[in-house]
Amino acid sequence: MFIKNLFGKKERSAEEAKNRINVLIRYDRAGVNPELLENIKRDIIKAVSAHIEYDPSKVEAKFIQERNNESVLVASIPITRIKRPEEKKRNSGGRR
């Protein structure tokens, strides 16, 4: 069991390192630096936060390189609650 755990961790570490390198390559090919990705993520969250409540610790954004060499932005924002229309008006300061 000890040997299996020991070798299993190495395989996972090697796989994680490979995944990190692939992410860096995708970002480089797309011309995206980590700061730009964080800015995009922040802007997306700002746009949808008027309509939803979400778990900020689980928000993810990444670029995926498609087979035709196009970059695709994929955002994952776990929604905890949809805001009702009257909540949106109250939060935006609008009175009707």
Report on the architecture of this protein:
The protein is of the alpha+beta class. It has one domain (2-92). Helices cover 54% and strands 20% of the residues. The strands form 2 sheets. Strands 1-4 form a two-stranded antiparallel sheet. Strand 2 and strand 3 (71-76) form a beta hairpin. The longest helix is centred in the N-terminal third of the chain and has 29 residues, at 2-30.
List keywords for this structure.
alpha+beta, disordered N terminus, 3 helices, 96 residues, two-stranded antiparallel ribbon, elongated, two-stranded antiparallel sheet
Report the β-strand fraction as a percent range: 15-25%
Tally of discrete structural domains:
1
Low-confidence stretches: 1-8
Whole-angstrom Rg: 19 Å
Q: What is the N-to-C succession of helices and strands?
A: HHEEEEH
Q: Largest beta sheet, briefly?
A: 2 strands, antiparallel
DSSP strand tally: 4
Mean pLDDT: 76
Helix content: 40-55%
- Terminal-residue CA separation: 67 Å
User: How many DSSP helices?
Assistant: 3
